[in-house]
């Protein structure tokens, strides 16, 4: 069994999921709501760019390690340091219910929210 060094779980992350809410006009809409805040290790793996609809979109990929928490699924997102990460995969290491290894990506918006194209 791969050991979990809990001393390295030194960052607070929050798992968020889509829920029902109200917009400014009082109509039903979907909003990201907090699910669970936990301690984790957050490590940037690599950066890159890819083409989306003829635009270059920069991204950073992260490896996030945390203790096992049931109910964490890839359709959730992670809020960390004012950023929102999309979960690519969520691995219950060795199916032993002691550690989650998450691959997540941060899509970087260019300054001013505009992208070249």
Question: How would the blueprint of this fold be written?
Answer:
Layout: E1 11-22, E2 28-52, E3 55-67, E4 77-80, E5 83-92, E6 99-107
Antiparallel strand pairs: 1-2, 1-4, 2-3, 3-6, 4-5, 5-6
Describe this structure in words.
The protein is mostly beta strands and 117 residues long. The chain has a single domain (8-108), classed as Bacteriophage SPP1 head-tail adaptor protein (Thrombin, subunit H, Beta Barrel), CATH 2.40.10. It has no helices and six strands. It has a six-stranded antiparallel barrel with strand order 1-2-3-6-5-4. A hairpin with a 5-residue loop joins β1 and β2. It is globular and about 50 Å long. It starts with 10 loop residues before the first strand and ends in a 10-residue tail after the last strand. Mean pLDDT is 84; it is low at 112-117.
Name some characteristics of this structure.
globular, 6 strands, single chain, 62% strand, Thrombin, subunit H, 117 residues, 6-stranded antiparallel beta barrel, mainly beta
Summarize the structure.
It is built from no helices and six strands.
- Overall radius of gyration: 16 Å
Question: N-to-C terminal Cα separation, in Å?
Answer: 48 Å
CATH class: Mainly Beta
**Mean pLDDT across all amino acids:** 84
The count of β-strands is 6
User: Would you identify the CATH architecture?
Assistant: Beta Barrel
Strand order across the biggest sheet? Answer: 1-2-3-6-5-4
Uncertain ranges? 112-117
The helix/strand series, from N terminus to C terminus, equals EEEEEE
How many discrete structural domains? 1
Structural class: mainly beta
Q: Characterize the biggest β-sheet.
A: 6 strands, antiparallel, barrel
